[in-house]
Design goal:
The complex is a heterodimer of chains A (335) and B (376). With 335 residues, chain A is α/β, with parallel strands linked by helices. Chain A contains twelve helices and 14 strands. In chain A, strands 3-2-4-5-7-6-12 form a seven-stranded mixed beta sheet, sandwiched between helices. Chain A has a five-stranded mixed beta sheet with strand order 9-11-10-13-14, with helices on both faces. In chain A, strands 1-8 form a two-stranded antiparallel sheet. The longest helix of chain A is centred in the N-terminal third of the chain and has 15 residues, at 6-20. The radius of gyration of chain A is 20 Å and the shape is globular. In chain A, 57% of the residues are buried. In chain B, helix 1 runs parallel beside helix 12 (309-333). The chains are: A alpha/beta (335), B alpha/beta (376). Bound molecules: thiamine diphosphate. Chain A: Keywords: Oxidoreductase, Pyruvate, Thiamine pyrophosphate. Chain A: GO terms for molecular function: pyruvate dehydrogenase (acetyl-transferring) activity.
């Protein structure tokens, strides 16, 4: 057991993956000497060499496109996209090429490419530095999309993603990079557990689903709700695509109420999929329609307004009140 | 057989850097047949004005960094060292020429008369952008590397369709030249012979990556391959930049296609206030470039012409002081954005879903006020 920050856990996870398999290569802008703008690759170029920690030209489409070629050749590239908003120049290579190659080649070509993206807001950055692009990728067949919420998951999920033969979009909640937590370096997770959700707080009155940056906020909200006598079960989704509906469904059947929260906008977001799928599966067990507490459907706002945009404890509790039919502000019920 | 390195490390171009220069680092005037005709009018008075401009934007940069350190700005991208590239090109433009900048062209914005309030608003995080592009003929700052060059190509196609005599200029860094967008922009501009001037400030670094990570040769040579007329100039020589920009603008206005300027300069400061260049940059390199300082060389040149340097420096510091005062005033008077700004301008006209969301959020905020009322 070791106490690490989220970013140290990612750094250790990369190191372990590179030691384990010499076909693992890292690619990205500024990941060498600088160690990445968030220092996630700090020291790795020094230890593994510039042929395995590759500072790339400034071209995202080029980075992902060449990672595809390297994977064709038997490598396991781990790509760092500097910020969420800069993944879009690579979007074509990701959705038209990376996602479809296995299908196109009728299973003959495997592309074990991991794309690491620091995502989400809350750090007071300018435009393009706080986006939540998960729905674009989750909507694309052939990609798997995961997001850890704590250092231990960061450490293990990253290694699992790299070891996976499918392309994985790995979303790192950048505002949690400095969060500390215990990491069990010896307890190797079970095969396939990368795509399992986790009940991070058991409860009986309501199921609160979050992932990435909002898991901590959701846990705080559950603690606050306890004072009002509401016993919330918090689920960390961990895998956004595929979704572990088994765990989610069991919880919702137990509690009869569900609130889903994410930073991304509500319209056609991940919450919409979860709400619809859980309604299909658990309709007879629901006491209230699923409630979504999300960012607004606006371009990510300037720093001085982001605290309004991002779901916080109060907005989540307001959603809880609605799902419990305890007034709340009736958000979305007539719109 | 040449030895092959397995690190993919590009080699630096051989030999001394070659570029067009009018005034050397020591202030001496060197004949430059390619550029001299374009700066016949540059006398002591014009040189003095260019000096004052550069001093002003150097101060603007210092203030930006200081304001960030004081927590007044969220971020700042320094331009220290790039004054000649920005003033030389900015002052060559006609009022009707349109500019598509990156995020670092504070000096060009200054030439356009963008007011300090508008310049700082984005960096403060108070709005997505500062000014109305059509009021100053300059698009808002672009953060996505290279994206603006395509907009410039399209704007240039529009100018051509309109039969306009104006030109469009787009600014970007050496790192940006690796992006597909920049290469596609050159293809479009060349293919339609659009009046576009591509202005690359090769400041030698893209955050931590040296220019050799983007190219093994001269950036200007790459543009030649797309069929652009190219100039590679000393980007710390304001007169050379002014001359080359005038020449390139004349070329693009003639309707024979786009042009490209590589201004060879150096980013003396950090990439942004969030960056730590000591992790990747050699202090000696900084010293070497400090000796090529754009302001010092104009001062030295004016001195050699017998100009009254004392008076010039007084004029420059008075102008810089006034600008600095304006920047501080802008910060103290800039209102914080309101909640309504969150939902404003997402669409140009009504949008039922978003209006619903705005109304919901208003109700939500009101509920706190109501709670406060009850508990009183
Ligand atoms: C598409 C995209 N990728 C990555 C970034 C992050 N980033 C911001 S500035 C920068 C370096 C740019 O270098 P260069 O083009 O040389 O311009 P300079 O900042 O040196 O003026 C990078 C990688 C970005 N803004 N946009």
């Amino acid at each position: 057991m070791k106490t690490l920050t989220f970013s140290q856990a990612l750094n250790s996870g990369l190191r372990a993956a590179m030691e384990h398999d010499d076909k693992v290569v890292l690619m990205g802008e500024d990941i060498g000497k600088l160690g990445g703008v968030f220092r996630i690759t700090d020291g790795l170029q020094k230890d593994f060499g510039a042929h395995r920690v590759i500072d790339t030209p400034l071209a995202e489409s080029g980075i992902v496109g060449t990672a595809i070629g390297l994977a064709f050749r038997g490598y396991r590239p781990v790509v760092e996209i500097q910020f969420d908003g800069f993944v879009y120049p690579a979007f074509d290579q990701i959705v038209s090429q990376l996602a479809k190659m296995h299908f196109r080649s009728r299973g003959n070509v495997k592309l074990p490419v991991t794309i690491r993206i620091p995502f989400g807001g809350g750090i007071g950055s300018p435009e393009h530095h706080s986006e939540s692009p998960e729905a674009y990728f989750a909507h694309t067949a052939g990609l798997r999309v995961v997001s850890p919420s704590n250092p231990e998951d960061a450490y293990w999920m990253l290694q699992q993603a790299i070891a996976d033969d499918d392309p994985v979009i790995f979303l790192e909640p950048k505002r949690r990079y400095h969060q500390r937590g215990d990491v069990d370096l010896d307890q190797v997770p079970e095969e396939g557990s990368l795509y399992k959700a986790k009940i991070v707080r058991p409860g009986s009155d309501l199921t609160l689903i979050a992932y990435g940056p909002l898991v901590k906020t959701a846990l705080d909200a559950a603690t606050a709700a306890e004072d009002e006598g509401i016993d919330i079960e918090v689920i960390d989704l961990r895998s956004i695509e595929p979704v572990d509906f088994e765990t989610l469904g069991a919880s919702v059947r137990k509690t009869g109420r569900v609130v889903i929260t994410h930073e991304a906008g509500k319209f056609a977001g991940i919450g919409a999929e979860l709400a619809a799928s859980l309604t299909e599966r658990c309709f007879d067990h629901l006491d209230h329609a699923p409630v979504r507490v999300t960012g607004f459907d606006i371009p990510y706002p300037p720093a001085k307004l982001e605290n309004h945009h991002l779901p916080d404890l109060d907005r989540i509790l307001d959603g809880v009140d609605r799902a419990m039919r305890r007034t709340g502000t009736q958000l979305g019920e007539d719109g | 057989m040449p030895t092959v390195s397995n690190t993919f490390d590009a080699q630096a171009p051989d030999g001394p850097e070659r570029y067009l220069q009018v005034i050397g680092p020591d202030g001496s005037r060197t004949p430059c047949p390619e550029l001299d005709d374009w700066v016949q009018d540059v006398d002591t008075r014009v040189l003095g004005d260019l000096y004052v401009d550069m001093a002003c934007i150097r101060r603007l940069d210092q203030e930006g960094t200081a304001l960030q350190r004081q927590g007044e700005l969220g971020l700042w991208a320094p331009l220290l060292g790039q004054e000649a590239a920005q003033i030389g090109s900015g002052r060559a433009l006609d009022r009707n020429d349109f500019i598509f900048p990156s995020y670092r062209e504070h000096g060009v914005a200054y030439c356009r008369g963008v007011n300090p309030h508008d310049l700082l608003r984005m960096w403060r995080g108070a709005a997505p952008s500062g000014w109305n592009p059509y009021e100053v003929n300059m698009a808002n700052q672009q953060i996505v590397i290279g994206a603006q060059t395509l907009h410039a190509a399209g704007y240039g196609m529009g100018l051509k369709l309109d039969g306009s005599t104006s030109a469009v200029i787009t600014y970007f860094g050496d790192g940006a030249t690796s992006q597909g967008d920049v290469n596609e922009a050159m293809v479009f501009a060349a293919s339609y012979q659009a009046p576009v001037l591509f202005f690359c400030q090769n400041n030698h670094w893209a955050i931590s990556e040296p220019v050799t990570r983007q190219t093994t040769g001269y950036i200007a040579d790459r543009a030649k391959g797309f069929g652009l007329a190219t100039w590679r100039v000393d980007g710390n020589d304001v007169v050379a930049v002014l001359a080359a920009t005038r020449a390139a603008l004349a070329h693009v206005r003639s309707g024979t296609g786009p042009a490209f300027i590589e201004a060879v300069t150096y980013r003396m400061g950090a990439h942004t206030t969030a960056d730590d260049p000591t992790r990747y940059r050699d202090a000696l390199e900084l010293e070497e470039w400090a000796a090529k300082d754009p302001l010092d060389r104009i001062a030295a040149h004016l001195d050699s012409l017998g100009a009254d340097l004392e008076a010039l420096k007084l004029r420059a510091s008075a102008a810089a002081d006034a600008l600095a005062a304006g920047l501080r005033e802008a910060i103290t008077t800039m209102p914080d954005p309101s909640v309504d700004d969150l939902f404003a301008h997402v669409y140009s006209h009504g949008h039922s879903w978003l209006e619903g969301q705005r109304e919901e959020y208003r109700l939500y905020l009101d509920s706190f006020a109501a709670d406060a009322e009850v508990s009183r």
